Amino acid sequence: MAQLIDGKKISAQIKDELKDEVTQMNARGITVTLAVILVGQDPASCVYVRNKKKACEYIGIRSISCEMPEETTQEELLEKIREFNQDDSVDGILVQLPLPAHIHEDTVIDAIDPSKDVDGFCPRSVGALCIGKPGFVSCTPAGIIQLLKRSGVTIEGKECVVVGRSNIVGKPMSLLLLRESGTVTICHSRTKNLKEICKRADILVCAIGKPRFFTEEYVKEGAVVIDVGIHRNEQNKLCGDVDFERVEPVASMITPVPGGVGPMTIAMLMSNCVESARQKAQNKE
Ligand code: GUN
User: Fold this and answer.
1) Assuming Cys at both sites, which of 32, 125, 206, 268 could form a disulfide with 135, CB separation 3.0 to 4.6 Å?
2) How far apart, in Å, do the first and last CA atoms of the chain sit?
């Protein structure tokens, strides 16, 4: 039987550590502020934004909420970002995605000052990760590294297979595992011999975006399996990219869905905000 990697517990630990740190920063007169921009009323985005604000409240981060109507023009949104870029009290800027179809996402992300890019999405942040320079790292993959480290999994020298090549998860995940000295293979939906390659993995990161795609046929005995997917099954219950019932007996460790990778994303966003404020305070010293 596999050991469960408890993302709820680990994310709560991280949030508690951050809460202590923010309390100490406050005592030194340093505040931490996150600006959250939501355009339109996408129901899932509204839930995510609400959860981000709740996490800020818990930790003691001030959150500025900017809710803009669906009809907002790209220029109006860019103007708002410029305003937050110039506002010295703002440490992090988050534009909730997806944006309405008439707004060009890349242009918007590119407008965020890299020193406030707490989502780690802007090209400068991704480039910094690629060449091993400091910068903010996309929250979901950064959270997965924390899950592995805090569960006692060594990455160095391990065969790591990442299935998925998105800019938000697959690509930064591969770069982070490489930074930790893993031997990394990146696969995707068009990879030939996907089963054979996955079966080599000591650490298998499943981010293909297909419900219960990964069965025991993809998993080596004793592998650590990280499930990034989140879907609703026929009974409207949450499930991941991994067929948990079939993989769990083979794996040594596995993340459940829900309660695995999901809660880590917000914890790492909070961590990036605190890091941004810490850097700003250091630069002023
Ligand atoms: N939409 C879904 N996930 C995310 C995320 O991590 N950040 C932002 N900005 N938007 C999202």
Assistant:
1) 125
2) 52
Atom 3, ligand 1: which residue's CA is nearest?
Answer: 97
Structure tokens at 44: 């899932």
**Which residues does a 6 A CB cutoff place in the pocket of ligand 1?**
94-97, 119, 139, 265
The reported pTM is: 0.97
User: What is the spatial distance between Cα 48 and Cα 53, in angstroms, rounded to a whole number?
Assistant: 9
Beta carbons of 276 and 116 less than 8 angstroms apart: yes
52 included as an active-site residue: yes
Distance between Cα 264 and ligand 1 center (Å): 13
Nearest CA to ligand 1 atom 2: 97
Encode the chain (285 residues) as per-residue pLDDT tens digits. 899 999 999 999 999 999 999 999 999 999 999 999 999 999 999 999 999 999 999 999 999 999 999 999 999 999 999 999 999 999 999 999 999 999 999 999 999 999 999 999 999 999 999 999 999 999 999 999 999 999 999 999 999 999 999 999 999 999 999 999 999 999 998 999 999 999 999 999 999 999 999 999 999 999 999 999 999 999 999 999 999 999 999 999 999 999 999 999 999 999 999 999 999 999 987
Of all protein residues, the one whose alpha carbon is nearest to atom 1 of ligand 1 is 97
Which helix (H) or strand (E) is 206 found in, with range?
strand 203-206
Give CA separation, 263 vs 14, 48, 226, 259, in Å.
11, 11, 13, 6
Return the HEC string of 219-237: CCCCCEEEECCCEECCCCC
19 is catalytic: no
How crowded is residue 193: how many other Cβ atoms within 10 Å of its Cβ? 9
